[in-house]
Amino acid sequence: MPVDPQTQTLLDQFAALGAQTLSSMGVAEARRMMEVMSQMRGTPVEVASAVDRCVPGPLGDIPVRVYTPQGTAPFPLLVYFHGGGWVLGSLETHDGICRALAAGAGCVVMSVDYRLAPEHRYPAAAEDCYAATQWAHAHAAELGADAKRLAVGGDSAGGNLAAAVPQMARDRGGPPIACQLLVYPATDATTFERPSYRDNATGYLLTTEDMRWFWGHYLGEARARAAEPYCSPLQAKSLTGLPPALVITAEFDPLRDEGEAYAARLEEAGVAARLTRYHGMIHGFFGMGAMIDQANAAVKDACGNLRLAFARR
Fold first, then answer.
1. Among the four residues 112, 189, 237, 307, which has the most C-beta atoms within 10 Å?
2. pLDDT, tens only, 60-105
3. Which residue out of 111, 156, 196, 232 is catalytically annotated?
4. Catalytic residue at 238?
5. pTM, whole model, 2 decimals?
């Protein structure tokens, strides 16, 4: 399929502006660019409240933002990890996504501002996200939520973390997780040779070189740890005992094949995993509902999947 017309218009606009690739920038400049881009995502969805606070982490407090939907508590609970290659992103860049998920799925969403690389290398982000999930489960009632209906989710690097945390929970004795929402997740740091890396190497916002840049910052000198399952969830020896998953991928995305490979391995391990590839889409489309109709369809699908998963608990 060709690139979706709305998406192609966006790509043409970026090309006309002479936009640089992330890997050609310094970290500070790339962070500023992502913050600016996040401000172009339309009017945020209304929720009952959005409150900033901190929760305890491995090496100090972790900032979080708690979104409460309209309705009567207790609500289900989604712990969400933002994308940005473990280097970029914040509570602000993913405010729109979290609001849409809270309203659409009728759940409390706790967005986690985990430590970023290169200041904090792997496994800092994964350990922060696991600690935040533990805290959310233990303090669900305080959040107006039901600890028995706990899910994790994330996009891109956040999808990597949302895949790692259920493995950590399985291996470390909890907490129980009802569902994992994995939006174009990065699942394997060990290779850049899959067809989607070659076919979508340039021209679709996220480049293959960008992914090398991101992984380089996240791992630093610890490239030998790339195959560890909490870094590369696809490399885990076993995926048995993990929660059901919705895996969303985009056709013109370097990460497409590893996300789809993870969904296939979950199915092989007996885990209910639904894969949805959005044709004509690029990496990052999930948060572009103000510009791309398929983004709204994907968010609606994610919300419906979460509601079904919560209803089973």
1. 112
2. 999 999 999 999 999 999 999 999 999 999 999 999 999 999 999 9
3. 156
4. no
5. 0.98
